[in-house]
Amino acid sequence: MAVEPSRRDSLLDRLAGIDTRSLALFRVSLALLVLVDLALRSRELVAFYTDAGVLPTWAAVQWLGAQSRFVVHTWSGATWYQALLFALTAVAALAMLVGYRTRWATAVTWFLVASLQARNPTLANGGDNLLRIMLFWAILVPLGARWSVDRARSARPAPTRALSVATFAIQLQLCLMYWFTAALKWHPTWFETFTATEIALSVDHLTTSLGRLLLDFPDLLRALTAFTVGLEIVGPILVWSPVATGPVRFLVVLTFVLFHLAGLAPTLYLGLFPWICAAAWLVFLPSWMWDRLERDRAAGFARVGGWCERLAGWLPGGRAGPGAALDPPTGGGRLGRRIESAVAAVLLVFVVVWNLATLERSSDTLLTPTLRAAVRVTGLGQRWAMFAPHPPLDDGWYVMPGRTEKGREVDVWRGGPVSWAKPADVAASYGHKRWNKYLDNLSRERYLYHRPLFGEYVCRRWNRAHAGQDRLLEFQMVLMLERYDTPHAAPQPTFLWAQRCEGNAPEPTSTPESRRESRARPSALLEGVDEHPVGLSDDPRRDVQGLRPERQRRRDGDVLPTLDMRLQPVDLEPPETGPREHRLDRSGIEEEVVVDVVEERQGARPATARQPVHDLPDPVYEAALVDRDVHYGAARG
Questions:
Q1: Strand 394-399 to strand 472-483: parallel, antiparallel, or no bridges (unpaired)?
Q2: Which element (helix H / strand E) includes 299?
Q3: HSE, side-chain direction, 13 A CA sphere, residue 625
Q4: What sign results for the dihedral spanned by CA atoms 383, 386, 387, 392?
Q5: Among residues 70, 197, 257, 278, which is most buried (max CB within 10 A)?
Q6: Contacts 24+ apart (CB under 8 A), 127-131
Q7: How many CB atoms are closer than 10 A to CB 46?
Q8: How many CB atoms lie within 10 A of CB 297?
Q9: Measured in whole angstroms, how far is the alpha carbon of residue 281 from the centre of its chain?
């Protein structure tokens, strides 16, 4: 609801209300970020969103379950269909940008962005979550009240501020992100040794050249660690200051914008995350700032209004009638505002409870079926575990040696001859940010069964570009693993996957039996390892169900059950031979694992390692990867 000027000085309005000029700037920034995100994603539209890519429609539907019926990007895997959805999202974002039928444009943008993110969850990051969530809350606030086509078409006086449950909710949502990411970072690296920033900048595939230079200043990095967690806790508290609210809010917003754009963005490859965070802070810009700007720059603000009026004359609807963006989406009136406020209040409670549940290991008591359903429909699910409880301790680069039909060995990912040496720019060897995130996830057990899909994609991509004797027969994925806690140790070559390219599945005419037989053939590139990759034996349900040990802290002398990265008959007892190492996994739990090094062939092949097995996917999904024809045919039908 709009606030009259006479009420602008009330404490409730100063704390929970938002200046409509801030909302206008927030609207423009959010719409621009959606357009930039679409442009960046469109570079790999085929690879990430079509049946010819790394996650065909049948696999995405299996991954999402019942939720997939609401994800329009899973309705077809054709390239033209995905391109059409990208174009529709861009049109909705452009309408939101200029403030044309703003609420409808914002709602359509939110729906299509949420669907796009759900289509391939392996690409998701914290910035995607924040963008989707802020778009949802933006539907409930008057984004088009100022500097918009809707404003130019309206006969009502322009409100200066807006105050409602939704304006309070969208501000509190941003604060919750920082408070809960600080809570999830409760770890010695953040609060005792202050080494978290140094660890984060040691992850080569995330760090820029400037970030690597900062590693020479450990004292500075410890100070930056303390500043980061302090800002995440104290900053969102200060922004609610009842004393000198305008100046304090301006300084807090300026600090966070500089933290993200001048601190994180130049040192870490985080995609649009820093820019989305900076845009979200615009809702806190106070009237104190705008009043001073309008007094000194009145002509500039008048020009913006003139542009909106001219644009309103060109678009359907002319300049007559009240602005639709100023009415509640329920149709207007007191009843509509009450319904809007009630919905916003309930959802805000759900968001708070959901965030509290992320701090609990056994969160079933908090996450009731009603809460889960509401969060699933609105896309408000969130867990702000950025570099929490500590930054990743492992890092590395990929080597993907492949063999062509004429016997030539090539690196099928980076191109050129196979080299096991560390690239000069590890991040560039991954690809752009989305590939960086995807390949990082591919090395984790949770995404184990995405590896065959990636393997088939690489085969198809290579063989589309090469003919005759240059066609690819097979390749392997090897991660050259480095660890922060062993900086002087040699990289540990870790085998992830072997792929045969015969037939380049998926083909609807092939059978699960023929595909299992093709994948079971031993590779000539790596000798001395077993024949079957993990999870692709003849009885996948038996293998997966037999390899789900309870994740818990182990006593000294206990050994976590391990499995060779190529499947043997299932045996949870570790071998008697092989050196033992203590490692910290991504959750910070120290585990003792047995490393079984395969002897390198002629000194030119990497060793493979036995790795702990935990958090494997559901056997239903793994079975679908083997018996894929059923699902592939159903998706096409």
A1: antiparallel
A2: helix 298-314
A3: 29
A4: positive
A5: 197
A6: 127/270, 127/271, 127/272, 127/273, 127/274, 127/275, 127/276, 127/277, 129/382, 130/177, 130/273, 130/276, 130/277, 130/280, 131/30, 131/33, 131/34, 131/37, 131/272, 131/276
A7: 17
A8: 11
A9: 20
Please say if the pLDDT value at position 4 is more than 60. no
Q: CB neighbours (10 Å) of residue 330?
A: 13
The average confidence (pLDDT) of the chain is 76
Q: Give the amino acid at 579.
A: P
Question: Which pLDDT score, from 0 to 100, does residue 593 have?
Answer: 33
Contact 144, 158 (CB under 8 A): no
Q: What are phi and psi of 172, to 5 degrees?
A: -65, -35
Mean pLDDT of 193-221: 93
Please determine, for residue 590, whether its predicted confidence score (pLDDT) is greater than 80. no
The residue among 495, 570, 500 whose CA lies nearest residue 535 is 570
Distance CA 592, CA 583 (A): 6
Gap between the Cα atoms of 448 and 300, Å rounded: 55
- Those residues with Cβ within 8 angstroms of residue 526's Cβ, 6 or more apart along the chain or in another chain: 476, 495, 498, 598, 601, 605, 606, 608
Nearest alpha-carbon partner for 68 in 368, 76, 457: 76
Q: Which amino acid is at 508?
A: P
Residue 561 dihedral angles phi and psi, to the nearest 5°: -55, 135
User: 512-520 vs 628-636: helix axis angle to the nearest 10?
Assistant: 130
Residue 580, classed as helix, strand or coil, is: strand
For 167, the 3-state DSSP assignment is helix
Residues contacting residue 548 through CB under 8 Å, at least 6 positions apart: 614, 616
In DSSP terms, 566 is beta-bridged to 533
Distances (CA, A) of 253 to 155, 428, 576, 596, 601: 33, 33, 58, 52, 58
The answer to whether 143 and 27 are in contact (CB under 8 A) is yes
Summarize pLDDT for 312-333 with one digit per residue, the tens: 556 665 554 444 444 444 345 6
CA dist 173 and 19 (Å) reads 17
Q: How would DSSP label each residue in 26-85?
A: HHHHHHHHHHHHHHHHHTTHHHHHSTTSSS-HHHHHHHHGGGGGG-GGGS---HHHHHHH
What are the tokens at 157?
A: 């006086």
Residues contacting 468, CB < 8 A, separation 6+: 405
Model confidence at 80: pLDDT above 80: yes
Peptide bond into 506 cis (omega under 30): yes
CA distances in angstroms from 537 to 69, 438, 598, listed in the order given: 31, 25, 21
What is the Cα–Cα distance from 379 to 581, expressed in whole angstroms?
Answer: 41
Q: How far apart are CA 517 and CA 626, in angstroms?
A: 11
Is the pLDDT reported for residue 403 higher than 50? yes
Q: What are the tokens at 360? A: 């609990």
Dihedral sign, Cα of residue 49, residue 51, residue 55, residue 61: positive
End-to-end CA distance of the chain: 47
Identify whether the C-beta of residue 281 lies closer than 8 Å to the C-beta of residue 174.
Answer: yes
